[in-house]
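[scheduler] slot 2 assigned
[scheduler] job type: sequence-to-structure, two independent chains
[scheduler] chain ordering preserved from manifest
[runner] begin chain α
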Amino acid sequence: MNIVLFGPPGVGKGTQSDNLVNELGITHFAMGDILRAAVKSGTALGLKAKSFMDAGKLVPDEVVIGMIEERIMAPDVEGGFLLDGFPRNVSQAEALAVMLEKHGKQIDRVVFMDAPEAMLLERLTGRLICKACGFGFHRHYSPPREEGRCDRCGGDLYQRDDDKEEVIGQRLEVYAEQTKPLLDYYKALPAFRRLDATGEMPAVYAELIEAVKS
């Protein structure tokens, strides 16, 4: 089964993706991971992407699509895949559809995870990371036993710059401009499902697996 999972920052895509690929036995494609792996391995596309990244520019869609094409043709992807973080806009979705058709593949399910902006802000701005071991906490959902101290190693906790409210606001604006129009592209397809991600994590996952299998 081939799945596209998308939604705003903080909606829980990463956590739910891990659960889903483990249950279905498919390959998880996190776009950031694919990009870093290609750059690290020094492939032709990786070197091309690095040249844009070093110049502070966005990696062009055709390069990103090429990287995904390399991965979906690998032997470990025979059971299917889940795309997390791609496509980010309609032009990428169109390019993805053309590329998959070329290889006789298709997207079997598109799931849009949604939650109110106030909840997204609370989730994102509440995250805390240990400076020493990198373990994560949350001020509201999983707070440390001692404020400012890691339960595991006693290290200092801090908030990443990209989890600060002003930065989160910018990320949500970019999402609204670029990614939300994917709803208009995908929602007319029989494969499309919309998921309310405001509940507790296990309940949201139960609804997600039902949406995928229904």
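[runner] end chain α
[runner] begin chain β
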Amino acid sequence: MQNSERQRSEPARRRGRFIVLDGVDGCGKSTQALLLVASLARGAAHAPLHLREPGSTALGEALRELVLGRGRDLDPGVELLLFAAARRQMLREIVAPALREGRDVVCERFHPSTFAYQAIAGGLGEREVLDLLAAWAGEPAPQLVILIEVSPEIAARRRSQPLDRIEDKGLEFQRRVAGGYRRYAELVPATVVVAGDGGEGEIAARIAAEVARVP
């Protein structure tokens, strides 16, 4: 069989889907990411990946400790650059190869967090942040970004106590962050907002309905 005939006879490998779950601290994204990954794994030819951001690579985990660890006073612009560096490494080292292999990727946090925390809550320019992320951590891009919307007050009760330097900034800061997520959904295509109230199963069903629309 000639190569061209063999290529026509073999089914094209399905490219993986890149899905992001994001939202304020305490919105339930970690729980929902676990549920989504388990759902995607059923019947899948390749096991999906569950990533967190910043993190998931050696560089990302080191930068996570640097940015989130207590005892440091980092300018929002410095935070932006460190998050972008961690994200670029994750995209190139893990996400791009996984998608080529046909593996779905579910990532906790991505560009919406940087926009909400560093641009809106941190005072950096909206376009400045979006342009930098697109230029330096823009490929591969998620096919779907799901923002789990929960009021900052409810999210704070779920967390019970701050876990890192950014969570230490308090409820008013988290309110600005929540507004940042809403603004991101207005500006960026392929972003949907799902209600984060109700039981875990109810929220998972809302997320699954959005994921099902991604080819």
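[runner] end chain β
[qc] chain β: Strands lie at 18-22, 49-52, 105-108, 144-149, 191-195.
[scheduler] slot 2 released
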